[in-house]
Amino acid sequence: MKSQARPATGRLLYAQSGGVTAVINATAAGVIQTARAHGIKVYAARNGILGALREDLIDTGKESAAAIETLRHTPGGAFGSCRYKLKSLEANRAEYERLIEVLRAHDIRWFLYNGGNDSADTALKISQLGKAMGYDIRCIGVPKTVDNDLAVTDCCPGFGSVAKYTAISTLEASLDVASMADTSTKVFILEVMGRHAGWIAAAAGLAGESADAPPHIILFPERVFDEAAFLAKVKATVERVGWCTVVASEGIRNAEGQFLAEAGTRDAFGHTQLGGVAPVLAALVKEKLGYKYHWALPDYLQRSARHAASKTDADQAYAVGKAAVEYALAGMNAVMPVITRTSDSPYRWKIEPASLDKIANREKKMPAGFLTRDGFGITAAARRYLSPLIQGEAPLPYGRDGLPKYGSLKNVAVKRKLAAFAP
Ligand code: F6P
What we know:
The structure is a single chain. This protein is of the alpha/beta class. It has helices spanning 24-37, 49-53, 65-70, 93-105, 117-132, 159-180, 199-204, 227-241, 277-289, 300-304, 311-329, 380-386; strands spanning 11-16, 42-45, 57-59, 108-115, 138-143, 187-192, 217-219, 244-249, 262-266, 272-274, 293-296, 335-344, 347-355. It has a domain at 159-306: 3-Layer(aba) Sandwich (Rossmann fold). It has 12 helices and 13 strands. The protein has a 5-stranded mixed β-sheet, with helices on both faces. A 4-stranded parallel β-sheet has the order 7-8-6-11. Helix 1 (24-37) packs parallel to helix 11. The site of 6-O-phosphono-beta-D-fructofuranose has 13 residues, from strand 10. Pathway: Carbohydrate degradation; glycolysis; D-glyceraldehyde 3-phosphate and glycerone phosphate from D-glucose: step 3/4.
């Protein structure tokens, strides 16, 4: 975390990585606006680290201040993202040499990688590579993930907004099923993201607090799926309340450790693609209990829902981008700006640097104290943690067509200086 003198010249390279979020572009705005205020030119890598390897760089200097400002409210990843894992230095030296060659050719002295725990690992490796290859480069990991599973930081930009969307959707769909239950649907099942950690599923719990309020059942990846206990609780809830809302994490597993919903494909990091647990549960409810059901899989809708974003989340996303540039220009290396909670109520937070080696490749699961004893709900401690993260609305400008006025950049390519390279 040592600070060194700032290089006399140089550009800053920013790249987005992994699954994008409703507010990752707010982080990009924080990066670009802060760098501009310091007179630093920013290049963006097209499609994350792949753009750096392919020398496919974007000159953000070609964008107007107004265009950069639109990033604050535009979902998706403005420069493209990727799932691509850099191997170890020993395993693929050519790739690292290529990276250094590209950075050197464009006089890039600061590299900001905006992603989750895999991306923190990539940023850490590049910082090590800089040292090993004698190239002066400062690397900063910038946090982002709807999964909220990064170590050290209290929460992850992107999570507060998916949490708000999930809590709102759970509440709204529950009002619907409650209206229909007498003669039609008895069970509604919502499937949410979160591969190995149940943070998003937990956020659904904010929809209601009393014993019979929805969601009546939350299924967490931290708990083994117990079919008999699940069905018993669905039945008891329908008999008592008249209907039942279930929120299931895509990552729930059976006692054998198998995901209930594997799509059968894997990404570059070896992660299993998930999705489809809701129909599996719905079929079970129908077969064993005979209830009519509906289920929903919001999938990308949940992580792109900027119209339901949390103001807290949008503010934090911007703040980590701004801090990342300040850390880089102060000469810090291999760190990440993390969010530290200083008070629950009133909610207060600040940004601090943390070493990437404490974050890379680690996953933060829900603490046991956040789950109720039966494993189907959240505790008061979880509510104290989650509630501030969904506070505030981050309104959008709407056009006459009734749609949000999202921004779109020109993404002008920087002239290549090197021979082509296929990663
Ligand atoms: O980035 C996290 C995440 O949104 C997970 O919750 C989800 O399982 C995964 O990404 C989906 O990844 P992809 O968009 O690459 O299929």
